[in-house]
Structure formats: structure tokens, C-alpha cells
Design a protein that fits this description.
Shape: globular
Number of strands: 3
Strand content: 5-15%
Structural class: mainly alpha
Radius of gyration: 19 Å
Helix content: 55-70%
Distance between the termini: 47 Å
Length: about 160
């Protein structure tokens, strides 16, 4: 009988992946329970990035949220039909690109959701002291940098 020396389920990468999946499920559930916002978790992630990065290119947004362009296009169509975003076709380096911006309604929805979402996240993070949160965040950013340094994934 061979003794197993490597147990992936005990590695940091496994715990990060598992924790990220749980965090996503919690985010999805939060927005499922708060129908008054009329947006999904993915919608909020998209709106938040557009709010923070006016005139962001659709391809840049896809890279930031690690979503394929066809899936992102469907999400953007939904947001556009709800009058939360605008997509403007323009040229950059002789290529046609779509710039994304929030409408006034989109900004209003973002601000309403952001306040409640901040409270929810703050409550989840309350198990840590401010110093622990700072250290933990720095360590996660260090890991993210290491994971992305040898790939073509570009994250902010």
C-alpha cells in the first residue's frame, strides 16, 4: 500500500477555491432574496465595475470579471434592457469597441444596492480585526499576483 504524501484538499489553493465558491453562492443567494433590486449577483459585479470605471471597454470588463465575452454580452443586454447601462460603439486603435456606462437609473440602483451590500459584507468580515483584514487582503493579493504572473489573465 502506497502512502499518500500530497493531499490537495489540505492546500491553500483548495481552500481558496472552496471559499470563493461559497462566497459566490452567498452572493447569488443574497440577490435572490432581495428581489427589490431587480438585479442578480453578476449584474451587481458588472454594475460596480462600470460605476468605478466609466467608459470601460466591454473586453476589459470581461477580463476583470473572468467572464467569456458571449456570456458577458447576454448580461449586458439584460442590463441595457433594464435601462441600467448604455453601450456606445466607438473606435480604438482602428478597432470597433463598445464603451460601457451606467445610466442615471443604473447609478441610482448601484448606490441603493451598495449600501445594503456593504452592510452584508461588513457583517461577514466582522470575524476579523481591522489589522487581520488588512493582512489577509495583502496575502490574498500576493497569492493572486503569483497565480496570474505566468498566465495571460490580467486582473486589477
Amino acid at each position: 500500500m502506497t502512502t499518500k504524501k500530497f493531499d490537495f484538499s489540505k492546500t491553500l489553493i483548495h481552500h481558496l477555491d472552496h471559499t470563493a465558491k461559497i462566497a459566490r453562492i452567498l452572493g447569488v443567494r443574497y440577490f435572490d432574496e432581495h428581489k427589490e433590486y431587480d438585479i442578480t449577483y453578476n449584474n451587481f459585479l458588472i454594475i460596480e465595475i462600470i460605476y468605478s470605471n466609466p467608459n470601460i471597454h466591454q473586453r476589459d470588463l470581461a477580463k476583470l470579471i473572468l467572464m467569456g465575452t458571449s456570456n458577458l454580452s447576454r448580461e449586458l443586454e439584460r442590463l441595457e434592457s433594464k435601462k441600467l447601462i448604455t453601450r456606445t460603439l466607438t473606435e480604438k486603435d482602428k478597432k470597433r469597441v463598445k464603451l460601457l456606462n451606467l445610466t442615471p437609473l443604473g447609478k441610482e440602483v448601484y448606490k441603493k444596492v451598495e449600501s445594503a451590500w456593504e452592510s452584508y459584507i461588513t457583517n461577514l468580515e466582522s470575524i476579523y480585526t481591522p489589522e487581520e483584514l488588512k493582512t489577509f487582503t495583502e496575502l490574498l493579493l500576493k497569492m493572486k499576483s503569483k497565480l496570474t504572473e505566468s498566465t495571460d489573465i490580467i486582473l486589477d
